[in-house]
Amino acid sequence: MSTEESILNAVAIASNPGQERGLQNEAIEFLNKVRAGATETWPIALKLFVGDDSVSRAKQSVHVRLFALQVLDELLDNRQEELVNAGRAQETYVTLQSTLGAYITEEYVSGSAEAHAPFIRNKFSHTLALLFLCTYPDQWPTFFTSISPLLHASVGSPSPTLNPHVTTFFLRLLLEISGEIHDQTIKSARSFVASRHARDTGIRDAIRAKDAVGVNAEVLRILEETITMLEAIRAGGAPVSESLGQTQLIELVELATRAFASYVPWIDINLTVTPATINLLFKLLSDPAVPIRMATSAALLRIIQKGLKEPSDKLQLFRVLSLGQVLEMLEQKTRITGSKDDTDDDEVSYRESLGKLTSGLGLELIKLCDEQSGPPPAVLAGAEELLQQLLPIMLRFLADDYDDISSSVFPMLSQMFVVYKRAKKNSPQTHLTAPKRNFLMQTLEILLQKMRWNPDDDPDELDDDDRVAFETLRSDLRLFLDSISAIDEELVTSAIKTLAMNTLTRADDSVGWADAELSVYLVYLYGEFQKGDRSKGRAAFVTPPEEIAKDKRKTANWESYPLTPHGEMLEALMQSRISAYPHNAVAIQYFETVGRYGDFFKVRKQYVGGVLTTLIDARGIHHPKESVRRRVFYIFHKFIKDCKLEIPVEHVTTIIDSMRDILVVRAELPEPESSEQDLLNEALGSAGFFDSQLYLFESVGTLVSLLGKEPEKQAAVLESVTNPLLSSLQQSIQTPITSQQDILPILQAHHVIRALGSVARGFPEASQSTAGTIPAWILVLKQVAEAILVSLEHMNQQRAIRDASRFAFARIIASTGSNITQYIPMLMNHLIRQSQPVELVDFLSFLSFTIHKLQNEVFTVLDELISPLSTHIFELLARPVEGTDDRLQHNDTKKAYLDFVTHIMNDRMHAVFVSERNKEQLPSLVQSIASIAEDLSDPSSSRLALTFLAKSTVAFAQAPDAPGASAPLVQLDAVPGYQTFIYERLVPLAFGIPASPSFNIKDGQSLSAIMEIGVLLKQIYQARGQEAVKYLAEVYLPSTNWPPNLAAEFVTKLAELDSKQFRKYFADFVRSSSAS
Question: Where is each Exportin-1/Importin-beta-like domain found (predicted)?
Answer without folding.
Answer: 118-290
